[in-house]
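Below: protein 1.
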Amino acid sequence: MKILVTGATGYIGGAVVDALKRAGHQVVGLARSDDARNKLTQRGVQAVTGDLADTAGLAALVKDLDAVVWTATTNSEAVDAPAVAAVLDALKGTDKTFVYTSGVWVHGDTRGNVVNEETPLSAAALVAWRPAVEQRTLGTPGVRGIVIRPGIVYGKGAGIPTLLTSSVKDHGAARYMGTGENHWPVVFVEDLADLYVRAVEKAPAGTVLVAVQGPSVKVKDVAAAASEGAGAGGKTVAWPLEEARKQFGAFADALVLDQQFSAQHAQKLLGWTPKGPGIIDELRSGSYARR
């Protein structure tokens, strides 16, 4: 398949590009800048110039493609929603594939319950606009729409866990927001990329997939592992939510959600079996650890 990946030089998008290439697909990466274009070209990926703010330009790019995998985000409804809508309108009636990257934060706090794709949504304020984009993805006529909701992504020494590892430099301990008693649902970046490949190749239209790896992990434990890997001996320190909000706003509220999920749907439907290291080991001695 000839597949356009938006966010192709990003954390998730870059891993998806590599996984799709390994699976034998022809990958085209959306590049907003010359630097992004050069990065893609150096990796042997065809680059096309585009910007999420240029909806007409995005729509024109998709006519010769078999699928679009959307991993890009500006975290702004004003930009993201019209961009997705323009591409879906361009694909309408073609029976081509569109995979949209949402996230587990659209479920809000699960209050100690293990939930799945069928659980009613109660989106965190930061992503309150995303359920509508999901519905547009799933409801556009003549489009094989698929939604993936990743947990907190880790691996390759990048992503949200770096907030913990980098805090050691300033505080001599890994600093977590809130009480640390909440649980993060997590997924290893390469396992997540594998799920995208399986979704593109096999998932029926209308599929929603929660992408998490094993049981959720208590944030205090994640922070302790980050501290160990960063050479701080497991020392951690709490950052009161009220103070964290002053710097991070609604992002802080998302990070203190207590969430637990089942990924059985992805496992049964697509045979997805995550194989990567757990987040605790990855922080202690893997890609995040001080060398």
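Below: protein 2.
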Amino acid sequence: MIYHKSQRSEKPFVKIDCTLLSSTILESDLFGHEKGAFTLLSSTILESDLFGHEKGAFTGATKLKRGRVELADGGTIFFDEIGDLPLELQAKLLRVIQYGEFERVGGTKTLKTDLRVLAATNRNLRQLVEEGKFREDLYYRLNVIQLEIPPLRERVEEIPDLISHFIKKYSSELKKNISHISPGVLKRLQQHHWPGNVRELENMIERAIVFATGTVLDSVHFPADIMQTPRAGVAISGVKYKDAVAQFKRNFLVETLKQFNGDVTRTANQIGLPRTYLYQLFKELKIDIRGLKSKEK
């Protein structure tokens, strides 16, 4: 909306998912890395993605590449999950915002760019600054106008319109003739917690349309656990021990994460578990921590 209503709406719009930029760091935290491998990825490949590189700048750089910052010149660049941007790239991003200049990897010529910067995060940037994980000068340079978007579970009245939008979008893309969603399913979706926020809803509607053969999305097109009526507690009868334990772990971790707005470090300190082990549990129990925090733009 900001982009389409701006004076730069006819210019390029470039999106960067910072979680992808930092995925190698998280992978290393969980599984380790070989000597030299992680440094190359974080300091060279990621920088190249943002700022481009000259031919021969590093192994595999067989030709000149324009980075996303250069491609966005004159338009808008959007950093999704800016809180996950590796620290070593934050200083260079600050220079782009402050002075509109950068160099390609392996280059000596300073290039100029004119762009508008938008950023979104579900992390507490102020806290990251205090922990030394996010540059304070970059925080203040970004925090000119801040918009806070509540999680989807706090604005369930928007779910019907979002579903209608996604039905129209994916019916066209998948060449289906879906007209609407059944009232019972809509009611159940409005009761869901939506830890993955709008992205989770969009993925679920797309999945349902893939499986649909008629014109109406019904309960059979959605995951069974989503369609189950919420219960106040866990039923004892017919539940295996390991399933009950897994459910308890999931509920316990989710509720603790909520207390700390999805902050993994504070959650780990509270319950006395290492962060690396927590990430393993999140993967095992299918917990999406990104949906447990509010957006901060």
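The CA atoms of residues 93 and 138 lie 8 Å apart.
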